[in-house]
Design goal:
- It is a single chain.
- Helix content is about 40%, strand content about 15%.
- The protein is built from twelve helices and eleven strands.
- α6 packs across α7 and α8 packs across α9.
- It is elongated, with a radius of gyration of 22 Å.
- The relative contact order is 0.17.
- The protein binds 6-O-phosphono-beta-D-fructofuranose.
- 6-O-phosphono-beta-D-fructofuranose binds next to loops.
C-alpha cells in the first residue's frame, strides 16, 4: 500500500516583514524536494485556519518569491485564544483543530513574532503538531538571538538617517526620527549606531528630556551645528505614558527647552515593506529549511532559533508571552557611550 505523504501547513501571522516569502519557500521547497512531503498554505494567519482558507503550495507557486516583500499567504493579527472568543457561539481553537484534522495536516508551521509564538504554543497544547519560525523587524522574539526582517528594516532606517543628516546639516537643525519598536529598542539602537545618531532613545532606558536638551546644546549642536535624534516608537513620557507620535513629542520638547529649530520624521510602514536584504533572505531560508528537518524528525512543539550563531530549536512553551528586550548593559550601548552617544540619562 502506498504510504501517505506527510502533509504540512504553513501560515504567516502578525505584522508582516521582509523575508516571509523566503521562509515560506525555505520550508516548502525543502519539504517537497528533499523530504517528499506535501505542502499547503493557510491564508491570512490564524484566521485562515478558523475559516478553512487554504492554498496549494507546490514547486511552481514557491518559485520566484524569494526576493518579494510581504507574504504571499497574507497575514492578520487574529488572536484565537483571546478570552472573549469563548463566550461567543464559535469556539475558535476547537474550529482550528477540526480544520487541521480535516485538512489531514501532520504539522502546522507558524511564522510570526511573539504573539504568534504564544498562539502556536497554545495550539500545540491543544493537540496539534506545531513548529514556530521567528520573524519581526523588532528583533524581540524571546529564545532567539535574531529574527529575519530586522536586518532589512535596519538598512531602511539607516538609509533614512543618512538622508536626514544632509538636510539637517544644511539647515543647522535637529532632526528627530521615529522608528518602530514598541517594547524593544533594537531597531533604534542598531540604526542609530549605523547612522551615527547623536541621541538614541529606547524603551528600555528611562530618559530625562533636560539631559537630552543639555547634551544637544553643549556637546553636539555647538560642535556640528546639527543633530540626529533616533527615537523608538515605544518610549514613554515622564508620567509613564506611551505617545502615539513619539517623534513629535520629543521634537517639540527639545525645541521648547533649547530654542533650536527641530523637525520630526516618522518612518512608519516604509521600514516594514519592500524586498528583504540578502542577510534576511539567507536567514529566512535557513530557518525554513531547518523547520522542514524538524518535521521530518517529528520534533514538534518547538520554535526554530539562532543561538550563538547556531540554528537550533527551543520549546514553544518557553517562548510564548515573552519579549526579548535590550539589556541596558548591552556592549553596544557601552561602546556608543564611549563615543559620547547619549541615551538621554
Ligand atoms: O510587527 C511589529 C511592529 O512592527 C511594531 O514595531 C509596531 O508597533 C507594530 O508592528 C505596528 O503594526 P500594525 O500597525 O500593523 O498592527
Amino acid at each position: 500500500m502506498k504510504k501517505k505523504k506527510t502533509r504540512v501547513g504553513i501560515l504567516t501571522a502578525g505584522g508582516d516583514c521582509p523575508g516571509l516569502n523566503a521562509a515560506i519557500r525555505g520550508v516548502g521547497k525543502t519539504a517537497i524536494l528533499h523530504y517528499g512531503m506535501e505542502v499547503v498554505g493557510i491564508s491570512s494567519g490564524f484566521l485562515g485556519l478558523i475559516n478553512n482558507e487554504v492554498v496549494n503550495l507546490d514547486e511552481q507557486t514557491l518559485s520566484g518569491i524569494l526576493s518579494q516583500g510581504g507574504t504571499i499567504l497574507g497575514t492578520s493579527r487574529e488572536k484565537p485564544f483571546k478570552e472573549d472568543n469563548f463566550s461567543q457561539s464559535i469556539n475558535k481553537p476547537k474550529l482550528m483543530k477540526k480544520h487541521y484534522d480535516e485538512l489531514g495536516l501532520d504539522c502546522l508551521v507558524c511564522i510570526g513574532g511573539n504573539g504568534t509564538q504564544k498562539t502556536a504554543a497554545l495550539l500545540s497544547e491543544n493537540g496539534m503538531n506545531i513548529i514556530g519560525i521567528p520573524k519581526t523587524i523588532d528583533n524581540d522574539v524571546w529564545g532567539t538571538d535574531i529574527t529575519f526582517g530586522f536586518d532589512s528594516a535596519v538598512n531602511i532606517a539607516t538609509d533614512a538617517i543618512d538622508r536626514l543628516y544632509t538636510t539637517a546639516n544644511s539647515h543647522k537643525r535637529i532632526m528627530v526620527i521615529e522608528v518602530m519598536g514598541n517594547n524593544a529598542g533594537w531597531l533604534a539602537l542598531y540604526s542609530g549606531i549605523a547612522g551615527g545618531g547623536d541621541v538614541i532613545l529606547i524603551p528600555e532606558i528611562d530618559y530625562d528630556i533636560n539631559v537630552v536638551a543639555d547634551y544637544l546644546v553643549k556637546n553636539t549642536y555647538k560642535k556640528k551645528h546639527s543633530s540626529i535624534v533616533v527615537v523608538a516608537e515605544g518610549i514613554k513620557t515622564p508620567e509613564g505614558k506611551k505617545k502615539k507620535n513619539a517623534a513629535s513629542y520629543i521634537s517639540k520638547k527639545i525645541n521648547e527647552i533649547t530654542g533650536i529649530e527641530t523637525r520630526e520624521t516618522i518612518l512608519g510602514y516604509i521600514q516594514r515593506g519592500g524586498s528583504p536584504s540578502p542577510m534576511d533572505r539567507v536567514l529566512a531560508t535557513q530557518y525554513g529549511a531547518f523547520a522542514a528537518q524538524l518535521i521530518d524528525e517529528k520534533k514538534f512543539g518547538v520554535m526554530v532559533a539562532m543561538k550563538k550563531g547556531k540554528i537550533e530549536s527551543v520549546p514553544l512553551i518557553e517562548v510564548g508571552g515573552k519579549t526579548r528586550i535590550i539589556d541596558i548593559n548591552h556592549s553596544l550601548i557601552k561602546k556608543a557611550r564611549y563615543m559620547e552617544t547619549s541615551f538621554g540619562n
